[in-house]
Amino acid sequence: MRTLVAIPVYNEAKYVRGVLERVLTVTPHVLVVDDGSTDGTARLLPEYPVEILRHVNNRGYGSSMRDAFRFAVAEKFDWLITMDCDDQHEPAAIPEFLEAAAENTHDVISGSRYLRAASAQDRPPADRRAINQTITAELNCRLSRCLGTLLTDSFCGFKAYRVSALRSLRPTVRGYAFPMQFWAQAAAQRLRVRELPVRLIYNDPTRTFGGVLDDAEKRLAHYRHVLHRELRRRADRLPRAALLGIDDDGCECRCP
């Protein structure tokens, strides 16, 4: 089972050395997608035996994920594991994803930070947890039958993907709303999903999303807009219940 670990980075000079050193003890196949870092991250990457894709300008998290998907497909890997570089995903958990992937029963192994009790110091900012809960509940309401599971964490970037399944996806979202499009497309393609508990770690609760997304209400509205737009686009492959109540992007989920 040939596996690639892909790590999107943006201004992670503080963490990138430690993360890469630990990941390389687990697997030799590592891709770093540098999304236009300006803090010296790019100068550190050549110190390590990793593949590097670099964006001259910052394009957004979704763009980095799309590049990772394309690279894994083009290089004919069997599985792709994605993780963040801010020391909030533990490289020591990668073998657990590999074990789950080796069972060969699912297409997506999605990390969940809420399947285990978290310590007090690792609690996320209240607005992030609230948005995660709201979006996760709506995804479950609309898509659980298609995904074959009830999600508990729709935003965790620590995931393993069967690369052959990625060929059926057409992601276009450039920014932080990428997971909304991913879940809608995964449901439309009937990808088999399971969650895997991972540790909840928040090293820097002051990190921002940038621009209007720093406003929690606007961020939630944006996520819903992207999700509802993608559900409309995939309407021919989704049950009618998945499309209920999406005319108003600010609505509460009104699924039966």
Number of helices: 8
CATH homologous superfamily grouping = Spore Coat Polysaccharide Biosynthesis Protein SpsA, Chain A
Q: Average the pLDDT over all residues and give the rounded result.
A: 91
> Largest sheet, described in full?
7 strands, mixed
Q: Kindly report the spatial arrangement of strands forming the biggest sheet.
A: 3-2-1-4-6-5-7
Quickly count the domains: 1
Overall number of strands = 7
How does the helix and strand content classify structurally?
alpha/beta
Distance separating the two termini:
41 Å
Q: What general outline do the C-alpha atoms trace?
A: globular
Give structural attributes:
256 residues; alpha/beta; 8 helices; 35% helix; globular
Describe the model:
- By secondary structure, the chain is of the alpha/beta class.
- It has one domain (3-243): Spore Coat Polysaccharide Biosynthesis Protein SpsA, Chain A (Alpha-Beta Complex).
- Helices cover 35% and strands 14% of the residues.
- The protein has 8 helices and 7 strands.
- A 7-stranded mixed sheet has the order 3-2-1-4-6-5-7, sandwiched between helices.
- Strand 2, helix 2 and strand 3 (51-55) form a beta-alpha-beta unit.
- Helix 5 runs parallel beside helix 7 (178-188), helix 5 packs parallel to helix 8 (216-233) and helix 7 (178-188) packs parallel to helix 8 (216-233).
- The radius of gyration is 18 Å and the shape is globular.
- It starts with a strand and ends in a 23-residue tail after the last helix.
- 38% of the residues are buried.
- The model is unreliable at 249-256 (pLDDT under 50).
